Amino acid sequence: MERAGHLLKWMLMIVIALISLIPILWMILGSFRPRQELFQYVSLEWHLLFPVKWTLQNYIAIFSDSSKPLGVFIKNTVFVAGLVTLLSLLFNSMAAFAFSKLKFRGRNLLFAVFLSALVIPGEVTMVPTYLLIHAFHWTDSYNALIIPAAVSVFSIFLLVQFFADVPRELLEAGKIDGASWFGIYAKILIPSAVPALITMGLITFLGQWDSYLWPLIVINDESKQMLQVAIATFTNLQSTEWGKILAADTAASVPILILFLFLQKYYVQSIVSSGIKG
Amino acid sequence: MLRLRRSMVVLLIICLGIMVLSACSSKKSNEPGSSEGAASESSASASQEENKGDGKKIEIKYWRHDFAPEVDAIKKLIKTFEEKNPNVTVKMEVIPYGDYETKIRTALAAGSPPDIIGLDGPTLAAYAHQDAVIPLDKYMDMDGNKEDIAAPVLESLTYKGKIYAAPLNDASIGMFYNKKLFEKNGIELPSKDPQQAWTWDQVLKAAQKINDPANKIYGIDPGWGLGEGEGSTFVKLPFIWQAGGEILSPDGTQVKGFLDSPESKKGLAFFSSLYNEYKVAAKELPPEAFETGKLGIIVNGPWAISGFATSHPEFKLGEDWDIAPLWKDAKQVTPNGSWNMAITKGSKHPDEAWMFVNWVTGVEGAKVWYQETKNLPARLSTASAFPELSEYPMNIFVEQSSKFAHPRPVTPAYPVVTSSISKLFADIGVANRDIDEAVDEAVNTIDRALQKIK
């Protein structure tokens, strides 16, 4: 009886996994098909997913087009997303440390004000932020992409939750041994919150990797453009170049998949630990 | 823990307050005309900075949406322009089509617009109304050869008696049909003569013969599916005009008595019947159904000729498919208007900007533009300069746009008009809603927007 139940659970999970994988499989396999056959097979058959004629033409097209150098866009995006991730981990973890472990006047009020920013959607603050960036003469430069993203209320909020798990006694032990607050932060808190920081870093990196609207608004020069905006240019008024989009999407997913492959252990770990805490 | 919970309550209260506030303000910012203040402020700050660039090389910034063949054509024109005018450089920046308006509007609101922007015909009134672009009449009279521009195109670029943009090209649509499916079902092929357009009834009969949903063959896609966007409105509006209806009054200030007239409703009823009564149009179609031989009849424009040739070289014009003039009912009507160039009020160098605009859209530039892009010309001189424009298939579009073209309504409320119209068609097509009810709703929405701009 119990085995049957297990079997059923496994089957259900496999079905769910397949359903979530099929669109991704279709994207990857579709990127190896010639444009003509992409929408030729619509009924449930082998060639719905698998190309009749395999081709690398889509990849050659996106990487060799000198007016839209995908390699450059990937490099730009890695640079911006990497730097934002580093800066945001630094600033947000320090802020989260202060909110979760330091005692100071008005802390709760300040934290509440901070958190209230969570409910304001980015679209609402977009124009004011743009005005600010414009006044600093940062439009069309990476400052506009990196600096506003270096602090994130959401990250602070999550890190505060994670840091709450670190026992106060541990920090007090450090204090007794004569460590400064910064020493406690750098030597005790950070090492004990590595999974949380990796999770936060992944979320930040992924968010930057996928960011679209903000780079679209602030970056004018095509050679500085971010990956997702560049991919969007494959859809134009007259047509959508599906082959190129699928190839570019596949290429854009690879770095993220590799990151997850290496870091998923920590990612799952931190979700589990935060779940227990609830 | 308790402390955390109390702060959560505080937080919740703050959140609620902010949500209410932001809900109010976001409602306002959706309406046309609300960025007017920002736009005029921007022009003031721009004029203060004027004359800064004297003695130096002048840089003109031009923003347009991304479309490779057109961008390449502009690059060529920039090169020849800079050779001829060594003191001016033109910097073109291309923006993905889907979010073009978002980017332009943000830059206008922040007071940092480029000198020249690309404008789709019907958005012109909104920009002109907000004082974001300048009238071009004095330039047009000087060396713009405006008498050479097709009258319906010029009409669509005129707001309150002034011309606000110079046309890159015109657009028109025809009936594209799958020749093999027609022959297989024994349907007489439609005439290629623009004067011999098929009637709605003929189109319906052909679609009924072709339609075979069990084998995944569909009769007709009467207007680019049921999606949103200006392209979708562009190809659907003719149903209303062909039946003898109108969207707005000729001066663009009234919707009551026009969109809800019996004629307009007749056009909508025919469109709805294709989906619901006769079921010859599918509510969901596989992508590229026409190019892959699964769809009998579609509407499309001249741009699709080269588009299909590159994306589906095995699907040949003349063998697999052909083009006929757009169908007619009480009247023969086709839509018109396309992309244009306008000079922003924030530009510090409007004279130099005009020099470039005229270089691209003027008599000689328009010829280069046609050669490179094969877009339907907006200038009569271009139309007569190329013999292929009086031959099949281009002659259909050229003749339609000179004889049967109907501009889309010119009003600052056009963003509301276009979204209401595409919703209206989706309501009666997909949802099979009662036509009177759906029309009333659209009329009310548009009317509210029109009242606001008075």
Q: What do these coordinates show?
A:
The complex is a heterodimer of chains A (278) and B (454). The mean pLDDT of chain A is 88. Chain A has 2 domains: 1-64, no CATH class; 67-277, MetI-like fold (Orthogonal Bundle). Chain A is mainly alpha-helical. Chain A has helices at residues 2-30, 46-49, 57-64, 70-101, 107-116, 122-135, 142-146, 153-163, 168-176, 181-192, 194-209, 213-218, 227-232, 242-277. Chain A is built from 14 helices and no strands. In chain A, helix 3 (57-64) crosses helix 14 (242-277), helix 4 (70-101) packs across helix 8 and helix 9 packs across helix 10. By secondary structure, chain B is of the alpha/beta class. Chain B has 2 domains: 55-170 and 337-403, D-Maltodextrin-Binding Protein, domain 2, CATH 3.40.190.10; 174-335 and 413-452, Periplasmic binding protein-like II (D-Maltodextrin-Binding Protein, domain 2, 3-Layer(aba) Sandwich). In chain B, 47% of the residues lie in helices and 12% in strands. Chain B is built from 18 helices and 13 strands. A 5-stranded mixed beta sheet of chain B has the order 2-1-3-12-6. In chain B, strands 8-9-7-10 form a 4-stranded mixed beta sheet. In chain B, helix 3 (68-84) links the parallel strand 1 (58-65) and strand 2. In chain B, helix 10 packs across helix 17. Mean pLDDT of chain B is 87; it is low at 1-54. At the A-B interface, helix 5, helix 6 and helix 12 of A face helix 1, helix 3, strand 2, helix 4 and helix 12 of B. Chain A: It holds the Pfam family BPD_transp_1. Chain A: Belongs to the binding-protein-dependent transport system permease family. Chain A: This is Carbohydrate ABC transporter permease.
List the helices and strands and how they pair.
The complex is a heterodimer of chains A (278) and B (454).
Chain A: H1 2-30, H2 46-49, H3 57-64, H4 70-101, H5 107-116, H6 122-135, H7 142-146, H8 153-163, H9 168-176, H10 181-192, H11 194-209, H12 213-218, H13 227-232, H14 242-277
Helix pairs in contact in A: 3-14, 4-8, 4-11, 8-11, 9-10, 11-14
Chain B: H1 2-29, H2 36-48, E1 58-65, H3 68-84, E2 88-95, H4 100-109, E3 116-120, H5 124-129, H6 137-143, H7 151-156, E4 158-159, E5 162-163, E6 166-167, E7 174-178, H8 179-184, H9 200-210, E8 218-221, H10 230-242, H11 262-275, E9 295-300, H12 303-311, E10 321-324, E11 334-335, E12 339-343, H13 350-361, H14 363-373, H15 380-385, H16 394-403, E13 405-406, H17 414-429, H18 435-452
Parallel strand pairs in B: 1-2, 1-3, 8-9, 11-13
Antiparallel strand pairs in B: 3-12, 4-5, 6-12, 7-9, 7-10
